[in-house]
Amino acid sequence: MSGSPYKLASVLLQYPTMALFDGLDRLDAAAREAGPRASREAFARFLGWLRATPPTEVAQHYVETFDLRRRCALYLTYHRYGDTRGRGMAMLAVKTAYRAAGFQPSGDELPDYLPLVLDFAALTPAGAKLLRRHRADLELLRRALREAGTPYADLIEAVCARLPRPGRRDLALVRRAWEKGPPEEEVGLEPFAPPEYLNGTGAGARR
Predict the structure, then answer these.
(1) Do residues 164 and 26 lie in contact, with contact meaning Cβ atoms separated by under 8 Å?
(2) What are the φ/ψ torsions at residue 75 (nearest 5 degrees)?
(3) What is the three-class DSSP state of 176?
(4) Spatial contact of 74 and 13, defined as CB atoms under 8 Å apart
(5) What is the rounded CA–CA span in Å between residue 97 and residue 133?
(6) Count of Cβ atoms closer than 10 Å to residue 205 Cβ
(7) pLDDT tens by residue, 141-155
(8) What are the residue ranges of helices labelled H in 77-164?
């Protein structure tokens, strides 16, 4: 595994297969090398929970957290835009960032899927820049996971520890978006975003 904490977070934020549990020793080793200290500690807390919890319970918890809670969706643009026209435009900007750096994201996922963005950040500084651009969205996800009382919040803590603290503008945006929650679907994405973004799945759906 790459030594990047972003790559580690990407792996741990995906649906927990048996391969994940089989690789816990490697994941622990990667977590010990993560920086800064706050990231190492957050990864250690999460991996401790992963070791102590039966795989079937972890899988059930994952579904309950990310598939059944709108505020916990692993799609960065969803927290502010829901399935609205604004989200289609925001996803276009994300995909443009990939292409500008010479990358072509997989068509299996929407471009704002957090593990995909984290993989991008592990490969190039342009990916870390994209995460910084979505600092407010990460903060919204972190708050939602903390409110839900899930150990998955530690993974977002680990990512955020490597990024600048939210600025005043970000915090104002977070306050407004947190009060309202993700917008309900108004007109849908399909009429407003390029077809390659749209595979008939909504936020929180697992592929």
Answers:
(1) no
(2) -120, 110
(3) helix
(4) yes
(5) 11
(6) 14
(7) 999 999 999 999 999
(8) 78-81, 85-100, 114-123, 125-133, 135-148, 153-160
Residues with Cβ within 8 Å of 57's Cβ and at least 6 positions away in sequence, in order, are: none
- Asked whether the beta carbons of 27 and 8 are under 8 A apart, the reply is yes
The answer to whether the CB of 38 falls within 8 A of the CB of 3 is: no
Side chain identity at 75, as an amino acid letter? Answer: Y
In this structure, of 10-14, 65-69, 83-87, 201-205, the range with the lowest mean pLDDT score is: 201-205
75 DSSP assignment:
B
Phi, psi of 201 (to 5 degrees): -115, 150
pLDDT confidence of residue 42? 96
Q: What is the pLDDT of residue 192?
A: 34
To the question of pTM greater than 0.85 for the whole model, the response is no
How far apart CA 117 and CA 99 sit, in angstroms, is 13
User: Could you tell me which residues come within 8 angstroms of residue 136 by beta carbon, excluding any fewer than 6 positions away?
Assistant: 80, 166, 170, 171, 173, 174, 177
Fill in the amino acid letter for 44. A
Per-residue pLDDT of 47-66, as tens digits, reads: 999 999 999 999 999 999 99
Written as one letter, the residue type at 127 is G
Q: Are 2 and 10 in contact (CB under 8 A)?
A: no
State the virtual CA torsion across 114, 10, 167, 41 in degrees, nearest 10.
Answer: 150
